[in-house]
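Reopening this ticket.

The earlier resolution said the output was attached, but the attachment link was broken on my side. Pasting everything inline this time so it's all in one place.
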Amino acid sequence: MDQQDASREDSVAPAVEPSPTAVGPEVTGWRPDGVGDIVYALGTIGYDVPTRSRRASLHQRMGDPGPDDPAGLLAHLDEHPHDATAVQWTLNLQGMPIYAIEPTGAYADAAYELLRRFLREQIEEGVERVSLAGVVSGTTLHRSGLELPVVDPEIRGMYSWTTEALVTSVIEAAGEEQVAEAHREAVTTGVQNFLERVYYELRNLGREPHERALNFAATNAFEVERVYERAIGDDMELDSIDVEPSSVCPPGSNCWDVKLVFFFPNQPATSVRRLYRFTIDVADVVPATVGPMRSWSIR
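Inline output:
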């Protein structure tokens, strides 16, 4: 992938539950608003040709098999990159478009190049997820009839990865290329468990601050890998994931604590559990971690 203390815990506001805005059939008819809202969302890249006339025009320029063939479209865009603006690029969650992506400004060409690269990686390399950071600039209609928020992307927050490659990169970044295979597998399984729960159990639109903090935690898996390094050494497993406002935050920031609670599967349910907490500032379009990770025992 191209990437405060326990004594005050009682004073923190109640945990914020993951967004109730589930993504599924009930989203149909959802009316987006909030032009200027910051987005940090996870999904996959998709595309569509919004009108019949646009489709016919592209087909004439491309020849067979036409714009519905992703490989053919990418080959055409390699030779005619300016035609990328003729396509409606989307961020999809479980196959459903949730945002239209329309780059603007001096680096629009670079953003379109990234979108093409992400789509190619999904087709050819099995890339499972991309991150989209940006600002909502308006709305547009999708061919399905959905009214989608339009996101002007921020290149600094656009990444693509497979879970396996992400886990490998964080282990190597920790300087543990030579770790025992069993240990590596345990860390890999633990991080994959966290990521899958974020991707599926806690999926969200990445609009609310706590959603952006959670999504960034999945992107910035180095912190999660450090948690699992400790938890696996104690034979613990993940119990819950919570996000709540941070009790300590620098001026001008918007800090949220991501809290991972682990339990001992071979001990009684009333036994001591372990909480790991790290803080993410979501004031900027691209979030950032703040301060060191903390951990303590809880019941």
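Reporter confirms the inline version is readable. Confidence is low (pLDDT under 50) at residues 1-32. Residues 181-201 form the longest helix (21 residues).
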